[in-house]
Specification:
The chain has helices spanning about 20-25, 50-65, 80-85, 105-115, 140-145, 155-175, 190-200, 215-220, 295-305, 330-340, 345-360, 370-375, 395-405; strands at about 15, 35, 40-45, 70-75, 95-100, 125-130, 175-185, 210, 220-230, 265-275, 280-290, 290-295, 310, 315-320, 325-330. It is α/β, with parallel strands linked by helices and about 400 residues long. Strands 3, 4, 5, 6, 7, 8, 9, 10, 11 and 12 form a 10-stranded mixed sheet that branches. The protein has a 3-stranded antiparallel sheet with strand order 13-14-15. A two-stranded antiparallel ribbon has the order 1-2. It is globular and about 80 Å long.
């Protein structure tokens, strides 16, 4: 007898929730995070915001549904206080934390929480941090026999594939969301194609591999890649940064008193999107150390991009000229209200106007643009030299790191 949820109606619609990020929902074109057994994977280099992004989504899910989130801290490095700063609910009935590296235990408890798919599951939102630490079980007896480090090539990839084959159909019946953090690993080129990828990486031909083998590529419905872009100590006196955050050493924000204004800019690229026609897109988010993703910085930046902040010689208009949200006598007064005071009576309607502007814009506006190296690799032009400024290769990063060290 087939399961009652195994047959989909022609009017089937997946349950989704807003990420509470204008970049994730609108600029990247996801329009919400899906459930129904969908797997979302975030991978990238270290300190690029992978875990922060998933914690932010977990807080958004709690805000939208009022239901609990289960976090498997497989790395064993989680700071619970950071979860609350990212928006997760500190109530012990809303956020569950569990630390273990035993994959069999992880699978058993997750399946128990999902239930049989007919009754409401005890939990339907899971974060696994991270795939790199999900290794086949090693016992003390294996260590004593000096067999713990003996393994065959592909053991972890086979284990992860089997793990997903068992978990995903149960998550689909429970209408649950499965979110993973994954790590990038360098490729040791063994053929000409891999050598070419190391030199000219593209969105479909990566110059790295992922822990978990190819199962980590074909099971996710959404794949996001993060990369470090820039760190700010404060806004400059000129340019667009004045609408993003206060100048260095000035003021206190409304989230915490006395905190520094350091902000990290992280690039987010969509590598896979099987939920809609959003395609390959990329943009950046802003992360405050100790504060998670700051969506209002992105709102002000995008509003300025779509001319919803107009600075004239006599006044500064916020919103559309024919129906302004607010007007100020000078640019300094507008910066004070939007950046320093963060007045919600202005920012919230400004966010709605910015969303409308993004949806009305050409969908190719934030599409992934191939670098000149990508074009050269595809033989569409003469090969040229020069680094990809947004996503550098491992060699470029190593050179930068050596320069920083020598400095």
């Amino acid at each position: 007898k087939e399961h009652p949820k195994s047959v989909l109606g022609n009017d089937h619609k997946e349950r989704t929730f807003s990420s509470r990020s204008i970049v994730i929902d609108e600029v990247l074109g996801l329009r919400g995070i899906p459930m129904w057994g969908r797997m979302l994977q975030v991978h990238g280099e270290e300190h690029s915001g992978k875990s922060t992004l998933l914690y932010h989504l977990g807080g958004a899910y709690q805000h939208a549904t009022g239901r609990p989130v289960w976090i498997w801290d497989i790395e064993g490095q989680l700071d619970a206080r950071y979860l609350w700063q990212c928006g997760l609910n500190p109530d012990k009935t809303m956020t569950y934390l569990r630390q273990t590296e035993d994959v069999d235990e992880i699978l058993k408890h997750t399946v128990d929480l999902l239930g049989d798919g007919i009754e409401e599951p005890m939990c339907d939102y899971f974060i696994f941090d991270s795939v790199a630490c999900m290794i086949p079980t090693v016992t003390d007896k294996d260590i004593a026999k000096k067999e713990a480090l003996k393994h065959q090539v592909g053991d972890q990839a086979k284990m992860f594939k089997r793990f997903m084959q068992l978990l995903q159909p149960r998550a689909r019946r429970a209408d649950a969301a499965i979110h993973f953090v994954n790590q990038q690993s360098s490729i040791i080129p063994s053929n000409q194609k891999e050598q070419q990828a190391m030199k000219y990486a593209t969105v479909t031909n990566w110059n790295y591999t992922l822990t978990g083998g190819k199962a980590a590529r074909y099971f996710p419905s959404i794949m996001l890649m993060t990369a470090k872009a820039k760190a700010f100590e404060g806004a400059g006196k000129k340019g667009e940064e004045i609408w993003l955050f206060p100048q260095q050493g000035e003021g206190n924000d409304k989230i915490g008193v006395g905190r520094s204004w350091d902000v990290n800019k992280s690039q987010v690229r969509v590598l896979k999107n099987k939920i809609n026609s959003g395609g390959y897109r990329e943009h950046h988010i802003y992360i405050r150390p100790g504060g998670g993703i700051d969506d209002w910085i992105s709102v002000r930046e995008l509003a300025d991009h779509y001319d919803l902040i107009k600075c004239g010689s006599k006044q500064t208009i916020i919103g559309k000229a024919e129906a302004p949200i607010a007007t100020f006598k000078s640019k300094a007064e507008a910066v004070q209200a939007l950046v320093y005071e963060q007045r919600m009576d202005i920012l919230e309607p400004l966010r709605a106007l910015t969303v409308d502007a993004i949806r009305a814009d050409d969908p190719r506006t934030f599409a992934y643009e191939r670098s000149q190296q990508d074009i050269a690799a595809a033989s569409e032009s003469d090969p040229i030299s020069g680094p990809d400024l947004e996503f550098e290769s491992d060699e470029d990063l190593s050179a930068d790191a050596a320069t920083d060290y020598e400095g």
